[in-house]
Amino acid sequence: MSTTYTLRSKHRRSALRTLAFLSPWLIGFGVFFAYPLISTVYFSFTHYDGFGAATFDGLKNWSYVFNDYPLFWPALRNTLWLVVVMVACRVVFGLGIGMLITKIKTGVGVFRTLFYLPYLAPPVAATLGFVFLLNPGTGPVNSLLGDLGIPAPDWFTDPSWSKPALTLLAVWGVGDLMVIFMAALLDVPKEQYEAAELDGASPWQRFRYVTLPNISPIVMFAVVTGVIQAMQSYTQPLVAGKVASGIIGNSGQQFEPGYPDKSTLTLPQLVYNLGFQRFDYGSACVVALVLFALSMVFTALLMKRRGGLIQAGE
Amino acid sequence: MTYALETPEAPEAPKPPEAEAVSPAAKVARRKALLQWIAVHSLGVAAALFFVLPFVFLLLTSLMDNQQTLTRDLVPHHWAWSNYRKVFDTPGFLTWWKNTLLYAGLGTVLSVVSSVPVAYALAKFRFRGRNLSLMLVISMMMLPPQVIIIPMYLFWAKQLDMAGTLWPLIIPLAFGDAFTIFLLRQFLMTIPNEYLDAAKVDGCGEFRTLIKVVLPMARPGIAAVALFQFFYAWNDYFGPQIYASDTPASWTLSYGLESFKGAHHTDWNLTMAATVLVMAPVILVFFFAQKAFVEGVTLTGVKG
């Protein structure tokens, strides 16, 4: 009898201890995640401009965003473009640079630091720099291309080149993937390469049948986290559009979102446009929920992967 | 987790060339190794140029006089170091520095202090709902900030009247940051339980074990997450845009930099000097803490 009692009190004490350790996050989870998420769902069914009370509006915001809001579909298309092209370019290039760095024997520390640095460049600064470097008339890049006789695109001022320019910026900052791939490549058992070489495998066959199977969990990880990041693209496309258009907020002029021709508009920007420029909080919440649904699909993918990725168990 | 990041060995390093090659086969192998060395390092130099040249162009442009920025000459005609002075003299620039340091510094301290016990519990305690908690942490980590910004803004601006300050960005960090928790948890998983058991045998409670045993061992992990948090705040554009865009006295460097371009419309040289000044601290910090940083990036991709 008394043993059960002490056992139970021991259990209770350990539960209290766990709660105490988790308490900062439990509060954070409630106040800064669960509550605003539920509010977002609620607001999406109301008309609210920040004054007075929110009034129930049924599916009006939802139908407005999908049927009548002229920026929604262009932004969704752009976001998908970035998700496919930007992620593919970053993963392929990151893997290439990761393989290169494992092959370099002289000055590897210097090379690695140089390859990694752009990843650290603050996004606003890097974007501003790229808009200048890729400036159509007199930018250094187009000057060089001109000297080489290569026709130079108009980059951030041409609707069909603005997203490739953003991709170039993202590929420049591939240092995070390089480090992850480098670690994975160094983990591939050397005996497997030696065995493949004895069997007379070509470099491509060694890559295809030894390297790739060994690092495929990390490639998947890079793809899924890359997709989530690309879906959240906000600062770079916004700043690029603003700077390239020559119009900056606070100058009184209203900035045409997604300059040039809506080509740099992304879903997160719509939340800002609807909520903080048009004060249509209800519709802003609809876009927010679309974004939420998309990111949760890929987060679930990330958590479901077995064998080497984020695992909830031990 | 402990990859030999400092001196990576190539997976198939050729044998060190013998002093005197005897057989023709060895000669061929040596020539092949040399050719491969040249090919790999030329590719390395080409890649290095791609990564470094943008920085070089920015630096050079920041030292030109304004007429030259829109010409095709890449090297400054005369080195206008005074551009940097002009940037510092711009009204507000020093305030942006101060605000950024407050947001990044205080935010980092708060988020690390509040996240350590949570990460420790998720890594080492056994309790019901642990996996669920971890999944919720990951969901929070992956949540785009825009998803919940409308209610959050209304909460801070209408209920607490804190719009126009950076506190709506700093205060939440005192309640655990999901990314910090997750990364620290990954790191703490690698600390063997024997150390914790030994501390308990010596009569330490969980809290004392955390302070006396775990924290000293977790220093590299803490350094990595602190750096990430600091850089996150340093680079944050969306947060200051939402809460402080109407209050220049609360702007941060990342937010102010863009308006700097607006104010100095055609002065690309000054804008580039300001850009360099925003990049420089991050890069300096990186040089001093390279190892912690690289370890942190690796941590994000490692199994738990």
Mass-distribution shape of chain A: flat
Radius of gyration of chain B: 25 Å
CATH topology of the largest domain in chain A: MetI-like fold
Overall form of chain B: flat
- What's the overall average pLDDT of chain A, rounded? 88
CATH level-four homologous superfamily name of the largest domain in chain B? MetI-like
Low-confidence stretches of chain B: 1-13
CATH class of the largest domain in chain A equals: Mainly Alpha
Number of domains of chain B: 2
Order of strands across the main sheet of chain A: 1-2
The CATH architecture assignment of the largest domain in chain A turns out to be Orthogonal Bundle
Q: Could you please say which CATH topology of the largest domain in chain B applies here?
A: MetI-like fold
CATH class of the largest domain in chain B: Mainly Alpha
User: Can you count the helices of chain A?
Assistant: 13
Portion in strands of chain B? under 5%
Oligomeric nature of the chains: heterodimer
- Secondary-structure element string of chain B: HHHHHHHHHHHHHHH
Helix percentage of chain B: 55-70%
- Count of folded domains of chain A: 2
Protein name (chain B): Sugar ABC transporter permease
Keywords (chain B): Cell membrane, Membrane, Transmembrane, Transmembrane helix, Transport
Membrane topology (chain B): Multi-pass membrane protein
Pfam families (chain B): BPD_transp_1
Detail the topology: elements first, then pairings.
The complex is a heterodimer of chains A (314) and B (304).
Chain A: H1 2-44, E1 46-47, E2 55-56, H2 60-68, H3 72-103, H4 108-120, H5 123-133, H6 140-147, H7 162-172, H8 175-186, H9 190-198, H10 203-231, H11 235-245, H12 267-277, H13 281-304
Antiparallel strand pairs in A: 1-2
Chain B: H1 24-62, H2 66-69, H3 82-89, H4 93-124, H5 130-142, H6 149-159, H7 167-170, H8 178-188, H9 193-201, H10 206-217, H11 219-235, H12 238-244, H13 253-263, H14 268-288, H15 290-300
Summarize the structure.
The complex is a heterodimer of chains A (314) and B (304). Chain A has helices at residues 2-44, 60-68, 72-103, 108-120, 123-133, 140-147, 162-172, 175-186, 190-198, 203-231, 235-245, 267-277, 281-304; strands at 46-47, 55-56.
